[in-house]
Amino acid sequence: MKVALSRVHFPVTTLGPGRRVGIWFQGCSVRCPGCISMDTWHPRQADVEVSMLLESIRGWLAESDGVTISGGEPFDQPDALMAVVEGVRHLTHGSVFVYSGHSYSSICSHPAVAEGLIDALMSEPFMLDERQTLLLRGSDNQRLHLLTEKGKAEFSCFERDDSGDTKNLDFMVDNDGAVWLAGIPQRGDMRKLQALLASQGHVISVTEGRQ
Ligand code: SF4
To answer: Which of 6, 24, 31, 187 best tests ligand 1's pocket when mutated (most atoms within 8 Å of CB)?
Structure first.
């Protein structure tokens, strides 16, 4: 089984509890206006063996509190998602958290959901015109489903307003020098960052939509 991947990273501290392994799938059919991850939209040939992916993150899993799978749209690769989740389950007792832009009704029959292999699931598309007050969400229409006892224990604390005391973004530098962010920025954060860097003579492009 192969998967189209955007990237993997550890540690990610802004997409669920603790220090997590982040796995971003490549390709998204949902295409929410205002998405900040447009670089993950383009579908690509699935070219990474899931077994190789699991081997590459095995060491991180031993140190992590769980795994967050995002994208892109993980459920656009349903078989690969199942293989990744099953493999992760064999390698760690940490929690599995998955983001999807699809409606819950359209993905709840996926075996990883139905069989309780996913502890917590965020569903529904990002909506630019919705309020953004809740933790872990880009817009308040997004729904957090606590699917297992572990999911309830670890994620129920995220069913609350963001009181401003929570870190929203991880800042990362890849080996090739690329700088990128993981997490859920507040509305306008990327534009503010762009303006700040521009004032210092740097040029960056952002894929965040209109404000
Ligand atoms: S927010 Fe998520 S589901 Fe929506 S277009 Fe972006 S990557 Fe796809």
So the answer is: 31
